[in-house]
Amino acid sequence: MKYLISVFLGAASYGILSTFVVLAYTEGYTLGEVVGSQLLTGFVLAWLLSFWLKLRDRRKAAGKAGVLAGAAVLHTKLTWKQRLLLMAAGAPTAVTGLLYYESLRYIPASLAIILLFQFTWIGVLIQAVSQRKRPNGIMFFTIAVLLGGTLLAAGIIEQGTGQFNMMGVILGLLSAVSYSLFILFSGKAVPAVHPASRSAWMITGGMILVFLLFPPAFLFNGLLWGDLLLYGFLLGLFGAFIPPVLFAIGVPHIGEGMAGILGATELPVAVLLSSFVLNEHVSMLQWVGVIVVLFGIALPELLKRRRMSAQH
Predict the structure, then answer these.
(1) Strands (E), 71-198
(2) Who wins on pLDDT, 190 or 237?
(3) Residue 117, phi then psi, degrees to nearest 5
(4) Cβ distance 48 to 248 under 8 Å?
(5) What is the pLDDT at residue 71?
(6) HSE (side-chain half, CA atoms, 13 Å) at 166
(7) Are 109 and 181 in contact (CB under 8 A)?
């Protein structure tokens, strides 16, 4: 049960982010300052965790098998090729943050998170094209359910598309494509490395990319020591630090299928907070759409488990 709760809380942490970003924008902070301070915080926290775990492992190894075992731990260092690969794999998550956060300037947070969640079927299409393998009937049905739920959740059926800013919609959909690529690349990049080290190097890559695109003037002009530090810390804590740690704890024990279902917790949490904290209007029909989207995400795993139980 604790592993299920771990993944659930990790996904819920992601759902908090859009509310913090909108609040930071109301304070006058820019996209580069918000994302840059988030990744800087995530960078510091991730490396602190990585160094602490390495120190703990070395002490354990030295205690169990003496100097030789301790030396063996030191030899598990990453090569620079592996480090660069992990940093490159972390770039799409930075791009996702930039696109998603920028979309919040144009469209409500409740709509932005729904657009981001289109990664669930975009990822399927990317894999189908890359592997030249047509999705099966269940997957086509799942995509239809997801798209139907999206039309409801976005309010398109109630109000049409006239009230949407197209720039925001495009940015939201592009964030979904970027997130799909992140999932695709991150799972293949040096999978044997400890999750804490992988996360630290990937965040490093994302931070370097953001700092190249948006030079971090806030580090030198004193802006960081105002409210930006608070927003950056909260975004880094709930976006770049807590979820990877909790997922690393829980996912190996509950499996990727169940993790995918629990990972969808991000969607209702984001919509709830946008409704109660940001006072965005979310109708009953939109909530029905959110439930349909969640059902669509869970559907493949539920059918898979049903088949497995029928075989036994």
Answers:
(1) none
(2) 237
(3) -75, 0
(4) no
(5) 41
(6) 1
(7) no
pLDDT at 47: 92
Q: Is the Cβ–Cβ distance between 55 and 219 less than 8 Å?
A: no
Sign of CA dihedral 163, 165, 168, 174: positive
**Tokens of residue 246, six digits:** 């909790």
74 Cβ contact partners less than 8 Å away, ≥ 6 residues apart: 58
Query: Cα dist. 275→37, 108, 300 in Å?
Result: 26, 10, 29
What integer best gives the mean pLDDT of the chain? Answer: 83
- CA-nearest of 257, 158, 205 to 47 is 205
What does the pLDDT look like over 38-78, one tens digit per residue? 999 999 999 998 899 888 888 887 776 554 444 444 345 78
Give me the amino acid identity at 100: Y
Q: Give the integer Cα–Cα distance in Å for 29 and 223.
A: 9
Please give the structure tokens belonging to residue 299.
């559907």
Q: Which amino acid is at 235?
A: L
- Whether residue 115 has pLDDT greater than 80: yes
Lookup: tokens for 100: 């998603």
- CA pair distance 248, 103, nearest whole angstrom: 29
Q: Which of 6, 190, 210 is nearest to 97 (CA)?
A: 210
What is the Cα–Cα distance from 28 to 231, expressed in whole angstroms?
Answer: 12
220 in helix, strand or coil? coil
Return the structure tokens found at 194. Answer: 């400890």
Distance, CA of 264 to CA of 293 (rounded, Å): 9
Tracing tokens 């799909």 back to the chain, one arrives at 180
Looking at residue 271, its pLDDT comes to 87
Render pLDDT for 122-160 as a digit per residue (tens, 0 to 9). 877 887 787 777 777 777 888 888 888 888 887 776 666
